[in-house]
Amino acid sequence: MTEARVRERRIAGFDAYAALESLPMPTIAVVEGPAIGSGCEIAGACDFIVATPAASFRTPEAIRAPSARRSACRASSASASPRT
User: Fold this and answer.
1) Percent of the chain beyond pLDDT 90?
2) Angle at the Cα of 50 from the Cα atoms of 16 and 9, rounded to 5 degrees
3) Higher pLDDT, residue 52 or 70
4) 65 pLDDT above the threshold of 50
5) What pLDDT sits at residue 54?
């Protein structure tokens, strides 16, 4: 896949995440296994995540980009906090 095609796909993905985030009703992601890469990003774009004990969240691109790793860590630590 060319770099231009990868860029096009990422931009389309960002548009999809923005569409989820802008919905007028709450969105819920249900994760019952691994959410890797875009699956993790889709779940993150939702208002709530319901995860089973078998769920895991991974962003492989965070391994390659230090700034993405920091962002992923902030998101995971915020989501790990219990809600009251």
Assistant:
1) 40
2) 20
3) 52
4) yes
5) 95
In terms of C-beta distances under 8 Å and separation of at least 24 residues, what long-range contacts does 36-40 make, across chains too? Answer: 36/60, 37/61, 38/13
- Structural domains of the chain, ranges and CATH numbers in brackets: 3-80 (3.90.226.10)
Is the distance from CB of 56 to CB of 37 less than 8 angstroms? no
Pair of tokens at residue 75: 């998101």
> Within the chain, what is the greatest distance between any pair of CA atoms?
46
Please report how the helices 38-45 and 3-21 are oriented relative to each other, as an axis angle in degrees rounded to 10.
20
Cβ neighbour number for residue 40 with a 10 Å cutoff = 23
Identify the bridge partners of residue 29 per DSSP, sorted by sequence position: 49
How far is Cα 39 from Cα 4, in angstroms, rounded to an integer? Answer: 22
Residue with the larger pLDDT of the pair 32 and 64: 32
